[in-house]
Write a structure and sequence with these properties.
The chain has 64 residues and is mostly helical. It has 2 helices and no strands. It has one domain.
Length: 64
């Protein structure tokens, strides 16, 4: 496993959603934790979006 935060880490390279979630779940240690497919990253992104929208709707409904 190569270190993620090497001197050439922040060169403003584009990374996929899956790689970003892998870094988040592995605390920055493994960029390939969830594999290389696009669907895993998209699933986690849409799930987080759905949770946030559901929470906002719940707050709006209960405040009436």
């Amino acid at each position: 496993m190569s270190p993620i935060f090497s001197p050439n880490f922040n060169n403003f390279e584009n990374i996929s959603q899956t790689k970003a979630w892998s870094l988040f779940f592995a605390f920055g240690r493994n960029a390939d934790l969830l594999g290389s497919g696009l669907l895993n990253g998209r699933f986690f992104t849409l799930s987080l979006t759905a949770v946030v929208v559901a929470a906002i709707v719940e707050v709006l409904i209960l405040s009436i």
